[in-house]
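chain below, 71 aa
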Amino acid sequence: MAGGRRRGFAVSRPLAGPRLRRVLALVPWIAAHPGVTLDELASRFDVSRQEVERDLALLPFCGLPRTRPTG
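prediction:
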């Protein structure tokens, strides 16, 4: 694991904090905004739609049910 690498994959430690905060913020925000779309989430959290989809895919690993906003 020398040099921030593990099994040939780069480890992006500086992004872990902001991403974790965003993932944890997604859950209550989605609960407070029923019917929110992926594009609205991406805009609200200033990330791409694909990044929101990746964030939502992490929720089951955090012990949370997978939530899927519309569109």
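The chain has one domain: 11-62. The helical segments are 13-32, 38-44, 49-58.
thats it, cya
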